[in-house]
Every structure is written in C-alpha cells, then in structure tokens.
C-alpha cells in the first residue's frame, strides 16, 4: 500500500496539459545537406545533419533526420517459583484451573505409501540410531532446546498435564531446585526413550516453559492457573479445517496440506462479508458468529457449544524478534572469526566485526544452513531450503577491510584444470608443492613454475601468509585479456542521464530540481581506492517524442543539441563530445543544466517514448566501447507512435485473484529483448518513475530486472514534497560501490549443484548470471540441490566468482569462498539454520512463482513448507511431549511470525487497494533486497520516541509491531525501508509537542508536512538526528509521513503493524501461530 496513493485526492496532479498543447517543440521541418562525417554511425542509412545553429537559450541545436529504416525453544517468562508452586498444587489466582471442551472429530487421515520415511503404512525408520548414547555432557548441551505451548485438549479429549522443570513432561526435580540430579527421557529416535541422568550444567528451567491446564470434565467454566494467561481460547482442532493428505509426498510443489489461513465465512450474522486478499472463501465452510467472550477471528465448528470466559493468548508470551536480536547481540556481538567450517554467523542486526580467516564474510555470502544433510531424502523430509544469499559488492563495516586485490601477472589466475575453480584456502598442495588437489572436483593440477613454493612440515606453503588467495575467504584477482570482451582491456564505464522533458515533468518541477542539483551529483561519482579523481565519463540526453543528444566537449563555449526525430530507426548521431570527463567539461555541463529547464519551459508535449531512448543509450555505450548505466527519469506510459508503444491495461481488480499474473507479467517481449541486448553491451538501466497514472511497470521494469538495475518510484511527484527524496536517491545511486559488465558463477563441491537463481540478472545458460551492473545494495539468491550422496567427513565447499569491470575500468574477479559441514542427524541441521536468510530466500522464490501460479497456491506452499519444517523438528529432534504442545527449534522460533509477515506483505498479497504499478514496484524491490533490507521490510521497526534520551546517540530499543503497543500519550517511528511514519498520540504531552513542532496540541500539527521544524532545542535536534540515522541505514530515502491518532492515514500505518489482524482480514500473529500448531499436529498424525 502506498501512502501517496491514499493521498492522491489531495495531491496536485499534472496529468492533463493545457488546451491545444499537442505539438512539437524546437524541431525544424527543413532538411539540410548531408554531413558525411556522420555516416560512420549509421551503416547503410542516410543521415542529414544540420549545421549548428543557435537555439533559444544559447544552446546550439542541430536537427538530425533519417530515412530508411517452541514457541522457540523460546522462554515464556514463567518463573521457577511459579512452576514449583504449580507442582506443589498451590492455588493460583483462586480456584485451581478447570476446563471442559467438547470433543471434535479429528478426521481419518491416511498417509500415502510413498511419503518418506513411512513404508506402506509401517512405522517410520529411526533417523537417529537407536543405539546412540549421550556419552558426554557436551553432547547433551548442544542439543536444541525446546519450549512448549500446552493446549487444553490432546487428540480431542480432555487431559491433565502438570508442568515440570526439565525438558520433557516426565522430567523430575528435587524440591531444592538444584541443577544436578535431573532425570528425564531423551528422544534418541528409537521408539523407547533412553533413560539418562543429567549432571551439573544441564540447562535450567528458565529456558523452558509450559502451560499447566487441568480439566475435570465437570463443567463449562475455564480458568487459568497462570497469571500471564497464555491459554488457547478454543479447541485448536475445531478452529481450522483438517489437513488434506493430497500430494503430500510431492512437497514442496503441492499446496493442499492447509489453506494457509483460518478460513473466513462467506457471510457473518450482523457483519458484512469479508474476503481475505488472495484467498477465496473455502466452499461449504460456514461458521456461526463469535460468542460474546470469544476472541474475534476464532469460531467453533457447527454443532459445538461456545466456550465461556475464554481468554486471549497473551502476545507477550509469543516469540519476539526484539528478544532474539538482543540475545544474539549479547552472545555473538564483537569479533567474528571465519576460521571454522560450518560456523553460523551473527544475525545481520548484530553489531560485529568480521576477521577473514578462510571463509568469506557473511556480509558477502550467507547460507540458509551451515550443516547440510548428506542426502536428498533427508533434505526433502526436513523441508528446509538449501540456498545462498550473495551480496558480492556489499559494504564492509567500520574496522573491516575490503577484499585485497591480487595481481598474478601474465600467468593470470591459478585455477583447477578440471572444474576451473580459482585458487582458495580449500586447495591442498601435494607432491612437495608441485601440484594441488581441488576440493571441489578432486582433480590435481600442476603448479606453474612461477607460482611454485616449498611446503613446511604441516604440508602448507611457506608463503601462504604472503598470498591472500591461500588464507582469505574473499579476495579479488586482476584479470588478464582472456577475461575481457574481444580480448581487449576495458575502458572506464560511463553514466548517461536521460531526462524526460515532456509536460508532466516540466510542470511538476522535476526537471528543474534535477538540473539544479546535477553539479553536486557529479561530484559523487565513484572512484578507485587511493585515487582522488574519478575515471568515469558522463553524458546527457533529453527526450519527449524525439531524442536530443548534447555535445558537451570541454573546448566548446556552449553545449550543442542534436535532435533525432526518426525514432523508428534510432542511431547515435554524436560520438566525440557526448561522453566526457565531468571535471574537464564542468563549465559546459553547468551551462547545459541551466538551459534545459528554460528550453522546454513552454513544452506542450505529452506523448512520450521509451524504447528508442534506451536503444539510444545502449548504442552510445557501444559506440564508445565501454560499459555503463542509464539513469532514466520517466513520467508516463509510452503511447507515442514508436517502437515499444504500450497499451493501457490497468485493471487493479485482478490483483489478489488467480488472474493477477496477466497484469504482473509484461504485455510484450520487446522490452525483454531490448534488455538482453543491453546486457550484451554492458548497459545497465535504473528507472526513476514519476508517474501520475498507470505506466505499466510490469513491462517497463523488465529492462531493470534483466540488466541488474533498479526501480525508484515517485507517484504524483511534487518538487516541494518529493524533490529532496529524488535528489537523495540519485546521489546515493551515483555514489555507491558499483561494478559493471559482470558475470557470476557459483561452483560447489561434488554431490550438490546450483539449480535455480533469483534476483535481477540475465541467465543465458544454466550456470552463469550476467549482470550489466551490480552494486552494494543488491543480493542474489541461489538454490542448491543434491545430485549425489555426501559424506559426513568432507563437507560442502562453495565458491562464488564475479568477473567484473571496476569503476576505474580494471577487469577483476572477486572470489568468495564458504565451507559448510554435513550431517546425518536432523538435530545437527536444525541447530545451524539461519532464519533471516531462509526468509529472504523464500520470499524471492515465492515472488518468482507468483508470475506463473495462483497467489493462493503460492501462499499455501509457504505455509505448508513452514509446517513441514516444524513438524520434522518436532518428530525427530524434540523431547517426548504431549501432542498439544507447540515446539519450535531455537533458531527458527520466529519462523511462524516471519511467514505470517510474508503472507501479509504487499509484495505477495497486495490487492485492489493498491495500484498495479505499486504492486510491481514492491515485488521488484524485494527481488533485489539484501538480508538487512528484507528483515526490516517484512517485520517493520517500531521505535518509541516520546522519551528520547538526548545524551546518547543510540537508536531506542524497538518494540513489537502491534497497535496495542501504541500509547495515546506516546509518539513512535515506524519504518520498513520504503515507508517512514511518525505516529502521534492524541494525549501526547504539550511539552514534547512544543519542543518538536512548536505547538501545544496534536490537532495543531501540520500532518501534510514531510519535514520536522528545525527548532533549536536538544529534543528537536535529537529526533531529527535519529530520523537521519534511520534513513542512512536504508538505501532508499524514506519520505516522512506524519500520522495523527484516529486520522484517515492511521489505517495505512496499521497495515504495517504485522502482529495484528490485517485490515483485509488476514490473521494476527497469535491466530497464525495457533493455525500453524494445528497444521503441525495434522502432519504428525499423518506420518505417525
């Protein structure tokens, strides 16, 4: 959802020109004599080029015409004293808990005989050896912890469960509370639990929590014994539809295990019909209206009695991202050494400093798992995706170093003779250093004489610490001519600014603000390290229904304009003087920037082109024999009579339906084909869209997707509102670390191989990703699959090689290495999963599938996969417990929350309440997001700011994303990397308002403003500084939107409070967690 869209009624629109505005500006109808000097750029076509003539504004214009052409194991904060008081049978809050609930049919669920590991209905074989024994305390303590949420019914019947200290229901503890002497049953995978006595050091019960529920079957009253009140408000088995076993053995392709969300009725008594975005109501699912004391969204099955005095699950007891972030910062913050194979890195939200000791920094390369299952069957049963998230040009943190540059000289990079892997710490030198063995393919390769060095007594080269490629996980090699196009070393790349000067952009002020800031923008062009001056070139083009090139050669007194009117056969009319050194031609560029707004000030041109513009930029780079990027500032649907003309197919009602892919896919192939030509020329494209109406980003965005570019969007652009945001985005885009004309290949050791790729790139074969450019803000996802069985001893080795041209024109190869462990036990797998990487990978995979599948199928697959992961952990890793307990692995305790957030996100579930272009924009944004960006996008950061400490610069600790956290006397910042809101409570103190806004009442705050008043007091300075820090952490400049409590815009802010029930009827976090529990139980019933 876009705040600009909701505010469109108040925005000034420039979508209709003055009367009689259709015409051509500044294009001479006369045809001049042919200039033969231009023939070399046209081939067989005939050109006519005018003699330079002075044009209004002192620019020399030339007319060019042409013809032809567990709950985590999380903690529920139940104290030891409270648990012991329950064990002693003490009354808590009065009478002991009693409950009764009607039984419900669980359904006859049959397991397909092909589902692993059940064989024709028999018991599944043990994945952990029945003979396995815990021989040391160290082995025991590495076992994943589990925490539980106890429901009041087990398999449809009332039950009594007493909470114990320990890890399972059968654990016992002496009343002294000592940590020694615990006796419990540990599930080793056999059908008979192993009796084990734990010694000193066993985890205390503070890591565990259960809910104690007793039922005597004598009445309807339900009471809670825990004051925190985490009691399911109704029988979980009766809330959600039973799971289907259709095609379960084909997971993850199937989507029939569950519906993804609690079903919504077609109609409710006394309430209007509701419809989940993307979810048609399930047939023949009719539920009565909620009872007076029953939480909304949960309904009894027909024929069941309503529960009385039911209370809501306490969200405070659910796993919290803030708790996970703080724990990781405490345990993994500081120095992170990469010298261990399969070591799980800190979270991206943790402050840490990487010291490269053989594996690449997790800022460059992360895996969804660091212990890889040894075979495909185990991987399939676990349902955890094996993927890589690669940000090859990511920025390093303060205190870290960029990968060093290694020059091998004329011999070039040292590589394996068979698989062509590059030299790395994984290579083993043998035969006295004369050969090395590749750990990727096991082949041996002769060492060149100039690279030979003796080995020490450990078998290592004596010069290994002098050669980065032998000890570091990330480094760069200088490439030789064999790695360059046409065996020629590249020239420095170029940036070309292509500005739409049609009516909309002139009247909105975009052209003026961009030209007036161009001088500052060009000062930020990237340069090589240790160099004071950039080597990059720049060029300028304007366009409407024709294309205008500018000669800005340094020796000219004034810039010259050359106009190509025949856009059906685009060519490059100018070579010398088009791409220039920005410093040498600074005076000519300044003159051009002053005159462009004046030159087109009275334009009446409304129809624009785009395809010929991109073609012109590509031809310019090809003629100059260099790679580069096009910055295109475009305003409207290209409907002019020219190649690439598009039809208006705006029909937002299709969003969220099975037919949405018809408007989310391109309407023609012309832009896809053009993008492929651009990739071949090393031409990348960034689109800055300033539209007032439908522009068909699904089609135009293909040029960004395939060339490694990006889309920036400013709907209803107004210079006083969006001008600062536009300039900030352009400055960051120009200045960030970017490489050009790149090719990436991922190599793996034998037994696994890359199979699928997600992100912005073009892939011409099954192995290489071609990127016309890639920068520090983008990430690519790669899925890895088994093609053979692995061994537990060797591990999995991964090498990413990125061949590219630097901003200084040097051809290099960036090498990233990563070593992972292998495992034959599920517990080892679930102990080393990286959840943030899994979420990023699954979101990219889901968006890819949305282009070909119905949205409901894609969402159901996500839910089913989540349930399969947690059910596999429950079956194979968790301690024995009742079926009514929800048990989550420690590293995946937030998986249900993040899956719920993905399902609610605009990228996956945007419906008719947003435009098709907005939906495409967020989908493409997620496609390029790195992990830090996706973390905050799916779970926005909510920061309280009403009690800021002006003495420190740290960002206040975020709170949970729920409307219940918003206090009427508070103020909060909410940001997700794209939107930034400041929410003001109606009872906010007058002192705070006076310090920030200079008013005494929230009603007096101007919510249309996008800036805070610059008041000279510590609190105002602190808040403005805080907003600046938040913006700097994201690569898009977020416009500030002020939201007053109970105003219309509050509905938009609540859309991003992802723990609450969505305004479209989507489930809250608590509801989804209950539904996930039901799905897990159904799966376990099937496979048991």
UniProtKB/TrEMBL annotation:
GO terms for biological process: COPII-coated vesicle cargo loading; intracellular protein transport. The lineage of its organism: Eukaryota, Metazoa, Ecdysozoa, Arthropoda, Hexapoda. Belongs to the SEC23/SEC24 family. SEC24 subfamily. Keywords: Cytoplasmic vesicle, Protein transport, Transport. Residues 28-40, 296-309 have a biased composition (Low complexity). Residues 280-295 have a biased composition (Pro residues). Residues 490-733 form the Sec23/Sec24 trunk domain. Residues 740-822 form the Sec23/Sec24 beta-sandwich domain. The keyword Calcium does not apply. Residues 1-27, 175-203 have a biased composition (Polar residues). It comes from Clastoptera arizonana. Residues 413-451 form the Zinc finger Sec23/Sec24-type domain. Residues 955-1026 form the Gelsolin-like domain. This is Protein transport protein Sec24C. It is a peripheral membrane protein. PANTHER family: SEC24-RELATED PROTEIN, SECRETORY 24CD, ISOFORM C. It is found in: Cytoplasmic vesicle, COPII-coated vesicle membrane; Endoplasmic reticulum membrane. Residues 835-935 form the Sec23/Sec24 helical domain. GO terms for molecular function: SNARE binding; zinc ion binding. GO terms for cellular component: COPII vesicle coat; endoplasmic reticulum exit site; endoplasmic reticulum membrane. Residues 1-48, 171-203, 250-319 are annotated as: Disordered.
């Amino acid at each position: 959802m876009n705040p600009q869209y909701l505010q469109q009624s108040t925005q000034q629109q420039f979508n209709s020109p003055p009367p009689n505005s259709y015409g051509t500006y500044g294009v001479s109808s006369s045809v001049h004599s042919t200039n033969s000097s231009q023939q070399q750029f046209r081939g067989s076509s005939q050109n006519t080029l005018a003699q330079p003539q002075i044009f209004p504004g002192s620019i020399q214009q030339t007319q060019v015409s042409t013809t032809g052409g567990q709950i985590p194991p999380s903690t529920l904060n139940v104290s030891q004293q409270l648990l012991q008081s329950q064990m002693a049978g003490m009354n808590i809050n009065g009478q002991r808990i009693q409950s009764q609930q009607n039984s419900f049919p669980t359904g006859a669920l049959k397991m397909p005989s092909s589902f692993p590991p059940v064989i024709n209905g028999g018991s599944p074989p043990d994945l952990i050896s029945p003979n396995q024994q815990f021989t040391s305390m160290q082995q025991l303590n590495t076992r994943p912890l589990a925490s539980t949420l106890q429901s009041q019914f087990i398999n449809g019947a009332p039950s009594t469960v007493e909470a114990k200290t320990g890890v399972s229901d059968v654990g016992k503890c002496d009343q002294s509370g000592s940590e020694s002497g615990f006796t419990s049953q540990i599930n080793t995978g056999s059908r008979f639990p192993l009796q084990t006595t734990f010694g000193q050091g066993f985890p205390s019960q503070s890591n565990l929590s259960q809910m104690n529920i007793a039922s005597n079957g004598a009445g309807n009253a339900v009471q809670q014994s825990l004051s925190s009140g985490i009691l399911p408000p109704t029988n979980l088995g009766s809330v959600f539809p039973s799971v289907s076993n259709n095609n379960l053995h084909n997971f993850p392709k199937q989507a029939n295990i569950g519906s993804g969300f609690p079903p919504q009725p077609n109609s409710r008594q006394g309430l209007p019909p509701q419809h989940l975005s993307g979810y048609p109501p399930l047939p023949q699912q009719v539920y009565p209206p909620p009872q007076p004391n029953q939480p909304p969204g949960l309904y009894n099955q027909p024929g069941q009695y309503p529960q009385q005095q039911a209370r809501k699950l306490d969200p405070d007891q659910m796993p919290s991202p803030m708790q996970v972030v703080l724990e990781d910062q405490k345990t993994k913050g500081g120095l992170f050494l990469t010298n261990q194979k399969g070591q799980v890195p800190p979270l991206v939200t943790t402050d840490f400093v990487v010291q490269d000791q053989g594996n690449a920094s997790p800022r460059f390369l992360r895996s969804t798992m660091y212990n890889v299952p040894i075979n495909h069957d185990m991987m399939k049963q676990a349902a955890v995706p094996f993927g890589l998230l690669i940000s090859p040009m990511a920025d390093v943190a303060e205190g870290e170093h960029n990968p060093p540059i290694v020059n091998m000289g004329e011999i070039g990079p040292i590589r394996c003779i068979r698989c062509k892997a590059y030299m790395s710490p994984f290579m083993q030198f043998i035969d006295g250093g004369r050969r090395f063995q590749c750990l990727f393919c096991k082949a041996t390769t002769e060492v060149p004489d100039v690279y030979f060095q003796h080995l020490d007594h450990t078998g290592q080269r004596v010069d290994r610490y002098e050669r980065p490629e032998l000890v570091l996980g990330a480094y760069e090699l200088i490439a030789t001519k064999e790695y360059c196009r046409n065996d020629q070393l590249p020239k420095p790349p170029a940036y070309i600014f292509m500005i739409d000067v049609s009516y909309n952009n002139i009247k909105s002020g975009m052209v003026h603000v961009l030209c007036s800031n161009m001088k500052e923008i060009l000062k930020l062009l990237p340069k090589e390290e240790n160099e004071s001056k950039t080597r990059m070139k720049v060029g300028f083009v304007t366009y409407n229904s024709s294309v205008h090139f500018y000669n800005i050669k340094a020796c000219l007194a004034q810039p010259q304009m050359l106009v190509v009117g025949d856009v059906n056969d685009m060519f490059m009319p100018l070579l010398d003087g088009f791409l220039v050194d920005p410093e040498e031609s600074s005076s000519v560029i300044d003159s051009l920037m002053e005159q462009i707004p004046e030159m087109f000030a009275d334009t009446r041109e409304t129809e624009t082109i785009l395809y010929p513009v991109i073609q012109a930029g590509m031809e310019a780079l090809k003629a100059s024999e260099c790679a580069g990027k096009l910055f295109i500032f475009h305003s409207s649907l290209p409907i002019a009579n020219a190649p690439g003309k598009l039809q208006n197919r705006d029909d937002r009602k299709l969003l969220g339906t099975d037919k949405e892919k018809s408007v989310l896919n391109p309407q023609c192939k012309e832009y896809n084909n053009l993008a492929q030509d651009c990739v071949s020329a090393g031409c990348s494209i960034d689109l800055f869209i300033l539209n007032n109406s439908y522009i068909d980003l699904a089609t135009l965005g293909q040029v960004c997707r395939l060339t490694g570019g990006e889309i920036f969007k400013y709907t209803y652009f107004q210079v006083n509102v969006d001008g600062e945001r536009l300039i900030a985005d352009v400055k960051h885009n120009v200045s960030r670390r970017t490489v050009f004309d790149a090719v990436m290949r991922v190599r793996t050791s034998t037994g696994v191989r890359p199979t699928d790729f997600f992100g912005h790139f073009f892939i011409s074969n099954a192995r290489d990703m071609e990127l016309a450019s890639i920068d520090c803000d983008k990430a690519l996802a790669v899925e890895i699959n088994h093609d053979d069985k692995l061994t537990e001893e060797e591990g999995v080795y991964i090498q990413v090689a990125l061949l590219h041209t630097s901003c200084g024109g040097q051809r290099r190869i960036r090498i990233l290495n990563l070593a992972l462990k292998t495992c034959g036990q599920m517990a080892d797998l679930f102990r080393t999963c990286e959840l943030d990487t899994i979420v990023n990978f699954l979101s990219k995979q889901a968006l890819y599938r949305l282009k070909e599948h119905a949205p409901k199928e894609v969402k159901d697959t996500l839910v089913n996969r989540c349930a399969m992961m947690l059910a596999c952990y429950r079956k194979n890793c968790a301690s024995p417990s009742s079926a009514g307990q929800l048990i989550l692995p420690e590293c995946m305790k937030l998986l249900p929350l993040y899956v719920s957030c993905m399902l609610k996100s605009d990228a996956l579930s945007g419906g008719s309440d947003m435009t098709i272009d907005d939906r495409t924009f967020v989908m493409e944004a997620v496609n390029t997001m790195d992990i830090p960006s996706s973390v905050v996008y799916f779970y926005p950061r909510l920061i309280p700011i009403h009690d800021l400490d002006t003495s420190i610069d740290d960002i206040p600790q975020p709170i949970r994303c729920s409307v219940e956290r918003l206090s009427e006397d508070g103020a909060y910042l909410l940001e997700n990397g794209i939107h930034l809101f400041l929410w003001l409570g109606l009872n906010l103190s007058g002192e705070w308002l006076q310090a920030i806004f200079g008013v005494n009442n929230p009603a007096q705050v101007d919510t249309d403003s996008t800036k805070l008043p610059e008041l000279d007091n510590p609190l105002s300075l602190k808040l403005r500084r805080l907003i600046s820090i938040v913006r700097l952490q994201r690569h898009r400049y977020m416009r500030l939107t002020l939201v007053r409590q109970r105003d219309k815009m509050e509905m938009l802010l609540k859309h991003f409070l992802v723990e609450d029930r969505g305004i479209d009827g989507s489930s809250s976090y608590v509801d989804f967690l209950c539904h996930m529990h039901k799905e897990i139980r159904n799966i376990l019933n099937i496979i048991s």
